[in-house]
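sry for the spam today, last one i promise. struct tokens for design, 141 residues
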């Protein structure tokens, strides 16, 4: 299990935009499984939505992207680099995420050609599908 400090040794995101709390396991260049413990005091709940806090879908997507970044940036040749969004495809949201939920974030790298790749991304909470889609990334210096 990687904690936040160990995650920060792999990916460049920092609080308040580090969107994963721990990484359960990862295979460099292939896959990663991470968790986001959604707390009531998250910065985005102040405005999304007052009195009815719901985690924005774009931040669920970002959490998945950071999980995929752990997989791809943990490769020796990618250490110190960044993984940027190059596309989001087929992303569907099936369940609202609220304070107290724990997101299980799973990304499997399904295609790579040079610095470009695609990850199959799935987010669940309590075994129920939250979101699913494909994330295209580009590795940059």
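last one done:
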């Amino acid at each position: 299990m990687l904690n936040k400090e160990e995650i920060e040794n792999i990916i460049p995101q920092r609080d308040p935009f580090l969107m994963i709390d721990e990484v359960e396991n990862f295979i460099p260049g292939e896959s990663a499984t991470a968790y986001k413990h959604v707390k009531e005091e998250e910065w985005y709940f102040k405005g999304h939505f007052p009195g009815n806090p719901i985690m924005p879908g774009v931040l669920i997507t970002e959490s998945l992207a950071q999980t995929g970044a752990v997989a791809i940036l943990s490769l020796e040749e990618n250490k110190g680099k960044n993984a940027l969004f190059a596309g989001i495809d087929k992303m569907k949201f099936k369940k609202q995420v609220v304070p107290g939920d724990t997101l299980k974030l799973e990304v499997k790298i399904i295609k790579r050609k040079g610095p470009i790749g695609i990850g199959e991304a799935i987010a669940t909470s309590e075994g129920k599908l939250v979101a699913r889609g494909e994330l295209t990334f580009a590795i940059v210096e």
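Strands lie at 22-27, 31-37, 82-93, 102-113, 116-125, 128-140. ok im logging off now
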